[in-house]
Write a structure and sequence with these properties.
Helix 1 packs across helix 5. The protein is of the alpha/beta class. The model has no long low-confidence stretch (mean pLDDT 96). The longest helix is centred in the C-terminal third of the chain and has 17 residues. Strands 2-1-3-7-4 form a five-stranded mixed β-sheet, with helices on both faces. It has a two-stranded antiparallel sheet with strand order 5-6. A two-stranded parallel ribbon has the order 8-9. Bound molecules: pyroglutamic acid.
Length: 219
C-alpha cells in the first residue's frame, strides 16, 4: 500500500540568502522512500499566500499526510510543533514577511484559538533522538509565517473533516549559514536531510496499514 506524503519548505526570508528547509525538500524530492509517494513544494514566506499555495498543493496531490517544514534560526534542535495558534504577527520589525507585511496580534481566521498537530509529534521526536539527532517537541511555532501556515492547514483539514495527518517541523540553521552568522546554533544540512527522511518514514508508520497505533492530536 502506498501513501502520499506532501513535504514543504520555504524560500529564504528576513534578509538571509539561505533557507535550509527549501534545500531540504528539494533534495528530498530526488529520494525514494519505500511505500511512500513523495510530493514537495517550496512555499512563499508571505502571510496568507503561504496557506493558499499549500492548500492548492494539498488539493492537487490529495496527500495522506502533510509535513510542513520551516527554519527556526536560533534553535539548536529539530522541533516537531505540537500546536498552532490563531494569531499572526510579531512586534519585531525584523519579522516582516517577504512583501514587507508586518501584522500585529491579528487573528488568522475564525477558527479555534489553537489547533494541535495531527502528526505523531512524539514518535517523530523519539525516532530522531534514537538516530542521534537532537530533537525536542516544541509547544510554540511562534506567530510568524510558519505558525500561520500550520494553523491555516490544520483549520482547513478540520473544516473538511479530512483524515489527512498534518503538522509542522522547525529546523535549526544549517552549518553553511554560520559563514555569515558565526554564533548561530546549527546542524549540517546532511544531518537535517537524514532527519527529514526519518520524519517521513515515521509518519508513514502512523498512516492506515503502517502498523503503528493511532495517536491523539498533539501527542
Ligand atoms: N521560518 C519562518 C517562516 C519561514 C521559515 O522558514 C517561521 O518560523 O515562521
Amino acid at each position: 500500500m502506498s501513501h502520499t506524503i506532501l513535504v514543504t519548505g520555504y524560500e529564504p526570508f528576513g534578509g538571509r540568502d539561505i533557507n535550509p528547509t527549501g534545500q531540504l525538500v528539494t533534495s528530498l524530492a530526488g529520494r525514494s522512500v519505500p511505500g511512500v509517494e513523495l510530493h514537495t513544494a517550496v512555499l512563499p514566506v508571505v502571510y496568507d499566500e503561504c496557506v493558499d499555495v499549500l492548500l492548492a498543493e494539498v488539493a492537487r496531490s490529495e496527500p495522506d499526510a502533510v509535513i510542513a517544514c520551516g527554519l527556526a534560526a536560533g534553535r539548536s534542535e529539530i522541533t516537531p510543533e505540537r500546536v498552532a495558534i490563531n494569531v499572526k504577527g510579531t512586534s519585531d520589525p525584523a519579522y516582516a514577511d517577504n512583501t514587507g507585511t508586518c501584522p500585529l496580534d491579528e487573528p488568522i481566521g475564525d477558527g479555534p484559538d489553537g489547533l494541535f498537530a495531527t502528526l505523531p509529534v512524539r514518535a517523530i521526536q523519539r525516532a530522531l533522538v534514537a538516530a542521534g539527532i537532537p530533537s525536542s517537541v516544541s509547544n510554540t511555532a511562534g506567530s510568524f509565517v510558519c505558525n500561520n501556515t500550520m494553523y491555516g492547514l490544520l483549520d482547513h483539514l478540520r473544516r473538511q473533516g479530512s483524515a489527512t495527518l498534518a503538522g509542522f517541523i522547525h529546523f535549526p540553521a544549517s552549518a553553511e549559514m554560520t559563514a555569515a552568522e558565526p554564533s548561530l546554533p546549527n546542524l549540517p544540512l546532511e544531518t537535517m536531510e537524514r532527519a527529514l527522511l526519518i520524519a517521513v518514514e515515521t509518519v508513514a508508520e502512523y498512516l492506515p496499514g503502517g502498523g503503528a497505533p493511532e495517536v491523539s492530536s498533539g501527542l
